[in-house]
Specification:
Blueprint (H helix, E strand, L loop, with lengths): L1 H19 L4 E3 L1 H7 L5 E4 L3 H5 L7 E2 L7 H8 L6 E4 L4 H11 L5 E4 L2 H8 L1
Parallel strand pairs: 1-5, 2-3, 2-4, 4-5
């Protein structure tokens, strides 16, 4: 019984440590507006239909739902600079951020996405 308990505690510790590695930094759309005064890598991961309705100036586009999303994004981005990601609400960009982080990129998710951007700008 003691062995099972120790194994269980070790497992919980491993799972907890592993989940922390997938934490993604995030910023607000107001912080993004200030950052856009500089030259940053901004990646819009919305669908082409969503982009037709408006986008943040100077954003690169890669549809998160494309089968080869990660490959396309990696080919457009520079690993030496942070990548700021947004979608409509922040959900897809959060998932995309994890994929890119696992490829060695420094990533930052924009909370609230384009919907929040429209409300505040």
């Amino acid at each position: 019984m003691k062995t099972v308990f120790c194994f269980f505690l070790t497992f919980l510790l491993f799972v907890n440590c592993n989940s922390q590695n997938n934490e993604i930094n995030s910023i607000t759309t107001l912080e993004l507006k200030d950052l856009l005064k500089k030259d940053i890598q901004l990646l819009d991961v919305r669908t082409p239909e969503e982009v037709k309705n408006g986008a943040i100036e100077n954003a690169l586009f890669v549809n998160y739902f494309d089968k080869d999303f990660t490959e396309k994004a990696v080919n457009k981005l520079d690993k030496n600079n942070p990548v700021y990601l947004y979608c409509r609400s922040g959900n897809r960009s959060g998932k995309a951020a994890i994929l890119l982080k696992n490829k060695g990129f420094k990533v930052v998710n924009v909370n609230g996405g384009y919907s929040q951007w429209i409300k505040e700008n």
